[in-house]
Amino acid sequence: MHTAHARSSAGLPTLLLTIGFWLASAVAARADGQIWALVSLTKTVAVDWRVSVDVAPRWERDASDYSKTVLRAQVARLLGKHTALGLGYEFQEPASFVARREHRIWQQVQVQHQVGAWSLSHRGRVEERWLHLAPSVVVRARYQFRAAHPIAHSRRWSWLVLDEVLYTLRGTRLGPAQGVDRHRIGGGVARALSDHITVEGGYTWQFINRQPPLPAQHDHFAVFTLTARY
Q1: Burial class (CB in 10 A: 0-12, 13-18, 19+), 18
Q2: Given a cut of 50, is residue 204 above it in pLDDT?
């Protein structure tokens, strides 16, 4: 039974990547190449509490335009070994005309567990978004699946895949409409530099379902992440 679970977990990320790359080639949409960077710090402040802060600069328009700076803060409460509840805030400061200012709060639950050598993460989140020029708040739900597996027998290197679907529950004029907002599928490689610091690099494909008359869009991200946990 354990072997069967491990095989199914190994097959799912491969299937997600196959579907994502097929969609990227099949969908007729405007395309953009981007660079997303992230520096994230998480600190355990009590036995069951964690505080996190993120800084995430982004470049759009085929990575030629520094478009925005994303700032985040979150507090999370651990419920046992595998589950955490979180409350967070995000601010997006535009650096060019391709982006607009946004304030966001969210509530989330995250479950992490092991299946064989796989480290699996499931994250469900509900966001309340205040977009510049939009007349009312936008409510969006999102689910992210992430899986990591050691490369060969290494304790430092691993490869990872992710799949995330974002669905707007309450849209607004001059903002996203109700329905599927975007879909992300990606993969990459992680390297543990120490017991506390990890770096990641990879690729993510994203499909954005925009309101007519704007065409749908699919983006290609180069993603670089530095994570510190203490």
Answers
A1: exposed
A2: yes
Distance CA 94, CA 100 (A): 5
Give me the sign of the Cα torsion angle 132, 135, 139, 140. negative
53 compared with 155, residue with greater pLDDT: 53
Residue 216 main-chain phi, psi, to 5 deg: -60, 160
Alpha-carbon distance 138 to 204, whole Å?
A: 25
Rounded CA-CA distance 216/30 in Å is 6
Is the pTM higher than 0.90? The answer reads no
Give the integer Cα–Cα distance in Å for 88 and 90.
Answer: 7
Residue 129 corresponds to which tokens in the numbers above? 């978004």
Domain boundaries, the chain: 2-229
How far apart CA 29 and CA 50 sit, in angstroms, is: 40
CATH 2.40.160 fits 2-229, yes or no: yes
Alpha carbon of residue 203 to chain centroid: 12
Q: For residue 176, say if its preceding peptide bond is cis, omega within 30 degrees of 0.
A: no
Say which residue the tokens 């977009």 belong to.
Answer: 131
Among the listed residues 179, 228, 178, 180, the one whose alpha carbon sits nearest the alpha carbon of residue 207: 180
| 180 neighbors 206 (Cβ within 8 angstroms) | no
Going by pLDDT thresholds of 50, 70 and 90, the confidence category of residue 29 is low
* Cβ atoms 74, 92 nearer than 8 A: no
Provide mean pLDDT across the span 75-99: 94
